[in-house]
Structure formats: structure tokens, C-alpha cells
Write a structure and sequence with these properties.
Layout: H1 8-38, E1 41-44, E2 50-53, H2 60-68, H3 70-74, H4 78-88, H5 90-105, H6 108-114, H7 116-130, H8 133-144, H9 150-178, H10 182-202, H11 215-224, H12 239-243, H13 246-276, H14 281-311, H15 317-342, H16 345-362, H17 369-373, H18 378-403, H19 409-433, H20 443-471
Antiparallel strand pairs: 1-2
Helix pairs in contact: 1-5, 1-9, 1-10, 1-13, 2-18, 4-5, 4-8, 4-18, 5-7, 5-8, 5-10, 6-7, 8-18, 9-10, 9-14, 13-14, 13-16, 13-18, 13-19, 14-15, 14-16, 15-16, 15-19
Length: 472
């Protein structure tokens, strides 16, 4: 089992991990870099006097719009990503999405010097291409992930989100202090371009298209997914069933809630630690990464436990999704409230770290629930839920920027209270609406129903023939 490179589905997971590493390292880098770009720096003028200057004189509201600009483009390609991944292949769309984002990251310093309008345009375009990634990966899992390995494969790949967040925050602080903030974008962008080449050469659309997969592994995957090697039929998504499903809407609310808290901290934590908790830039970068390091470590553990509970039949799939997701949301609500009430450097950072870490268990609920409801429509359902989640990504930097204009402790308490309240709403909604079963409107359920009717019809003809033969 440790020789993962001999199994193509595990090679896919390994590269998907670094794909999501790039997805979030390229998204997060500006959250730390913008602190260096706008901080007051001590300068000595030719006449010998000492003064302070900002390279970019942006107030908190302007910074909020810049940080949220990524999501202006991101929101438009959620549904598109899920739809075209079925037609073109999720592997191609995922690779191009990350690759173009990496290329645009290299242009970020040039755009910033041209004006904040150009910076917003580049970031929005990055978001446009990166928006296809999450819907596409669900289309990939629907072809490659056996149900008994679904939680593990998805959560290991998704842990790249938090590893990338940690690495980006750590590197961004160090690079901004040592080489200058421009190198934050140059180094992370170059790494993303290298990954793009490897992904496009190695990853294939499905086991049937991979020339290097063993016959045994291919037959195992196809058998567990109840697919034949023929496949390739055009997918007609049941839009009415999807949009009227209680389970889908519970998933949407849960995804929005988790992403509201996640993006609040992702975009604002470095600023909060620097301006309100009075940490130095490099220390703020390190400490901002700590919650996501914990979450990344816990995500693989949570995925293993979720699969174990299903394999040993301790819990049904619905119970796994409900208990893991809602238990995490409840813990996040409590620790966000406690951290806001205390608002002191060490205790508050500890509470934030625990709250974010608990999110690893929530990802075993809403983040993989799409595949339970309808594997063939999982990319589209993910696109719908991630569209609403993107609204959270757009609003949180703007709302936080408006609420924390002076950076006072009471203003930041309000930000944390709002996040805690939204977590609680997500907990209650998901508890009563979740389902881990294949839905009656799904493509798979309808195919099985048609197959059953065909078999029953055939058996009916056989029985009728026997009766006529006996009468004769």
C-alpha cells in the first residue's frame, strides 16, 4: 500500500493534492503580501531626515475590495466548470484552470504598479480560471474513486488546500521581508507552472483512458463504480431534481457557512494579528498559518475515520455526514465565541486554531456529500454549492473591511460573532436536511430503475411463454 505510485488512482490523489496546494497558495499569497505592500516603512531622505512612506496608500476599504476581487471572476465559472468537465474531461479543465492562474500570478506585481484597478482585473481573471477547479475534481472522483475510498481520496487531495495555505502564509511573510513582496508572486507562480506540466502529462480522464493502469486496478474501479469499460455516454443532468432537493440545499447552506468563517480568517487574519494583536509581519504570517497547518493534519485523519465508520458499519453514510459536519460546526461556533470574548493574543489564537482545525471534520460532510447524492452530477452540484460559497468569499473581505475601519477590538469582536452565528445556522440546517444516499432524481437511480424494468419485462415474457406451453 505504501508504494502508491504503482496504483494510478493514488498517483492522481498525489498530484491533486499539489493541485489544490497551488489553488490556495496562489489565492492566499495576496493576504500576506498586501500587509507588506501597504505598511509604513522607515525611509531616510537626502537631507538626513527620517520619515515614513507606504508603497501603496490603500485604506482598509480599498484593501477589502482588492482581497475580494479574486471572487468576482471565481463565481462565474462554478457551474461552467461542472458542466464542461463532463464534456471535455475534468483532468484537462482542472489543469488549465490552475495553470492559467499560475501564469497570471507572475503578472501580479506588474498589475499592482499599474494601479489597483489593474490588480483587481488580474485577480478577478485568476478567479475566473480557478473557479472550475472544485467542480472539476468531483467529476474526476466520479470516474476514479471507489465508494469505500471516496472520503480518504477526496480529503487527502483537499488537504492540499490547507497545506498550500500554510506554505503560502509562511513563505509570503519570509519572502516579503527578505527579497521583497514581488517575489511572493514570482516563486509561487513558477511552482504552479511546473505542476501544470506534470499534471497534463500524467493524469487521464478515467481508468479506461490511462495506458499505464493495471488491468486489475481498472477492473476493480469499474466494478465498484458499477460501470462498464464502454461508458462515454452524454450526461443529461436532472436540473429540476437537483434544484428542488432538500439534501442539495442543506449542502449549499453548509458549504456557505463553512466558507464564510474560512474566508473571514483566510483574508483577514494576517491584518488582525498585525494591526490589532501587534505582531510583526513575519510573525503574523507564521501565526496565520498555524490554524491551517492543524486543519491540514487533521483532514487526513478525519477522512480515514469517516471511511472506517462506513466500512465497519458503525454509522451509515448519512450519519457520518451529519455527525462529522454538524459536530465540527458546533465546536467552531463555541470556539469563535470564546476567542472573540477573550480577544487576547495567545488565548484568541488558540481558539481560532481549534475552530479552524475542527473544520477538517466538516469537510468529511459537505465537501464529499455531492458524490453520495449523484456521482455523475457531482461536478454540477459542486458548482452550484460553490457558487453560493463564493458569495461568502466576496462578502467577507468587504464586510470585515467596513466593520474594522479603525481596527479596534470591539470591531473585530463583531466580525467573529457574525462568523460564529453563521456556523450555527449551517449546523442546524445540515442536521435536518442532510442525506448520504443516492437520490431518486439522480442519473444513477434512473438508470437502475430502467434496468430493473427491462429485466422484469423480460422475465414477464418468459413466464407468459411457460404458461402458454403448459396449456398446449
Amino acid at each position: 500500500m505504501w508504494m502508491f505510485w504503482r496504483r494510478r488512482r493514488y498517483v492522481l490523489v498525489f498530484l491533486a493534492f499539489f493541485g489544490f496546494f497551488n489553488v490556495y497558495s496562489l489565492r492566499v499569497n495576496l493576504s500576506v503580501a498586501i500587509v507588506a505592500m501597504t505598511e509604513n516603512r522607515t525611509v531616510q531622505y537626502p537631507n538626513g531626515t527620517i520619515g515614513y512612506e507606504q508603497e501603496f496608500d490603500w485604506d482598509s476599504t480599498t484593501k477589502g475590495y482588492i482581497l475580494s476581487s479574486f471572487f468576482y471572476g471565481y463565481i462565474f465559472t462554478q457551474l461552467i466548470g461542472g458542466y464542461i468537465s463532463n464534456a471535455l474531461g475534468g483532468n484537462y479543465v482542472f489543469g488549465v484552470g490552475v495553470g492559467v492562474t499560475a501564469g497570471l500570478t507572475l503578472l501580479t506585481p506588474l498589475a499592482a504598479h499599474a494601479g489597483f484597478g489593474w490588480l483587481i482585473a488580474v485577480r478577478a481573471t485568476e478567479g475566473f480560471f480557478e473557479g472550475v477547479t472544485f467542480p472539476c475534481i468531483h467529476a474526476i472522483w466520479s470516474n476514479w474513486a471507489p465508494p469505500s475510498e471516496r472520503s480518504r481520496m477526496a480529503t487527502i487531495a483537499f488537504s492540499g488546500v490547507f497545506t498550500g495555505t500554510v506554505a503560502s502564509m509562511l513563505l509570503s511573510g519570509v519572502l516579503a521581508d527578505t527579497l521583497g513582496w514581488e517575489w511572493v508572486f514570482y516563486i509561487l507562480g513558477a511552482f504552479g507552472c511546473l505542476w501544470f506540466v506534470a499534471w497534463m502529462l500524467i493524469v487521464k480522464k478515467s481508468p479506461e483512458c490511462d495506458p499505464y493502469i493495471t488491468t486489475k486496478e481498472k477492473e476493480f474501479i469499474l466494478a465498484t463504480l458499477q460501470r462498464s469499460a464502454a461508458g462515454g455516454e452524454k450526461v443529461q443532468h436532472p436540473w429540476r431534481g437537483i434544484l428542488t432537493s432538500k439534501a442539495v440545499w442543506a449542502l449549499i447552506v453548509s458549504s456557505f457557512s463553512e466558507n464564510w468563517g474560512f474566508y473571514t480568517l483566510l483574508t483577514q487574519l494576517p491584518t488582525f494579528l498585525r494591526d490589532t494583536m501587534h505582531f510583526e509581519l513575519q510573525a503574523a504570517g507564521f501565526l496565520s498559518a498555524l490554524p491551517y497547518l492543524v486543519m491540514g493534519l487533521l483532514l487526513s485523519v478525519a477522512g480515514y475515520l469517516a471511511d472506517l465508520c462506513q466500512i465497519r458499519r458503525w454509522l451509515t453514510t448519512t450519519q457520518v455526514r451529519r455527525y462529522f459536519n454538524c459536530g465540527a460546526f458546533l465546536a467552531q461556533t463555541v470556539f469563535m465565541l470564546v476567542g472573540a470574548c477573550i480577544l487576547r493574543p495567545a488565548p484568541t489564537l488558540t481558539c481560532i486554531t481549534i475552530a479552524v482545525g475542527c473544520g477538517a471534520f466538516a469537510w468529511c460532510g459537505f465537501a464529499v456529500n455531492h458524490l453520495d447524492l449523484s456521482p455523475k452530477s457531482a461536478g454540477v452540484v459542486m458548482g452550484i454549492s460553490n457558487t453560493f460559497s463564493t458569495v461568502a468569499g466576496i462578502l467577507t473581505p468587504i464586510v470585515s473591511g467596513q466593520l474594522t475601519a479603525s481596527g479596534s477590538e470591539n470591531e473585530w469582536r463583531t466580525v467573529f460573532y457574525i462568523a460564529a452565528g453563521i456556523y450555527l445556522i449551517g449546523c442546524v440546517t445540515y442536521w435536518f436536511g442532510v442525506s448520504g444516499e443516492l437520490q431518486s432524481w439522480s442519473i444513477e437511480a434512473r438508470e437502475r430503475e430502467r434496468e430493473k424494468l427491462r429485466q422484469d419485462g423480460g422475465q414477464g415474457y418468459v413466464n407468459e411463454g411457460l404458461v402458454m406451453e403448459q396449456k398446449a
